[in-house]
Design goal:
By secondary structure, this protein is α+β, with helices and mostly antiparallel strands. The chain has seven helices and eleven strands. The protein is 32% helix and 22% strand. The chain has a five-stranded mixed sheet, sandwiched between helices. A four-stranded antiparallel sheet has the order 8-9-10-11, with no helix packed on it.
């Protein structure tokens, strides 16, 4: 019996927190630190994740769950995900996770597609700052939590329980904020065609909806296409075969 194909991609929003490198150095400014000066390299401390439109925010840490359970959990989530939404995750979060997995001998995770909102913001808009906190405040959205605790990272590394409570809340809030921003920016994002999962390549490429209205024509250098506007706010063009594509 053939398994039923999913009607929409499994979209996972993800954020990680990691420790800093600890090293011996003779200088405070412009230090040129050699590998043999590193006493303890950066490591994954915790992750928070959320499936799109589900209420539960998942969390695991080395402090609460142990390293093995923490890594088992993120490996399983990534293995299920079709799309992973992050903020600066392509350059930061995902390499930290994958380094941790390969160090522990995990097999490769099933491939997924990245949507890095930091790259979207940096490429499309000219905000005064591209930080997640600044962007969400500017858009009048719920934003990142202020830790309110001096040297929170140091206290976390010392396994201070109260510090970890704040750290967990901070990590989980980042995931909620990132998902909310994804929903706002989704019509602007040229990601994978949502119809690949439903089988309807004539639907909206951004959200998969079939509620599309005619919106004139769109032109390339050599051709013109019918233009459609989705209820989500995204525009798309219609190819000769009836399939839609982002504009």
């Amino acid at each position: 019996m053939t398994a039923k194909a999913p009607q929409s991609p499994r979209v996972l929003t993800l954020d990680v927190e990691n420790s800093p490198h600890l090293a011996y150095t003779y200088d405070l400014y412009g230090a040129d630190i050699r590998p043999d000066q590193i006493m303890e390299p950066a490591r994954l401390l915790c992750w928070a994740a959320k499936w799109l439109d589900r209420k539960q925010v998942l969390f695991a840490s080395e402090y609460h769950d142990g390293v093995e359970a923490m890594l088992d959990g993120i490996w399983e989530l990534l293995n299920e995900a079709d799309i992973v939404v992050t903020y600066n995750g392509v350059r930061h979060d995902m390499p930290i996770i994958l380094k941790s997995l390969v160090e522990r001998g995990y097999p490769p995770v099933a491939p997924w597609q990245d949507i890095d909102l930091y790259q979207v913001v940096k490429r499309r808009y000219k905000f005064a700052s591209n930080s997640l906190g600044y962007i969400t405040k500017t858009l009048n959205m719920p934003t990142k939590l202020a830790t309110g605790v001096p040297q929170l990272w140091k206290r976390v590394l010392e396994d201070d329980d109260k510090a970890w409570t704040k750290f967990r809340a901070y990590n989980k809030q980042d995931v909620v904020v990132t998902e909310n921003l994804f929903k706002v920016l989704q019509p602007w994002i040229k990601g994978p065609h949502a119809g690949l999962w439903s089988g309807d390549l004539g639907s909206c490429p951004s959200c998969g909806s079939d509620k599309l209205e005619p919106a004139g024509l769109t032109y390339t250098k050599t051709a013109k296409y019918a233009r459609l506007l989705c209820e989500c706010g995204a525009y798309c063009k219609v190819l000769n075969n009836g399939q839609t594509r982002p504009i």
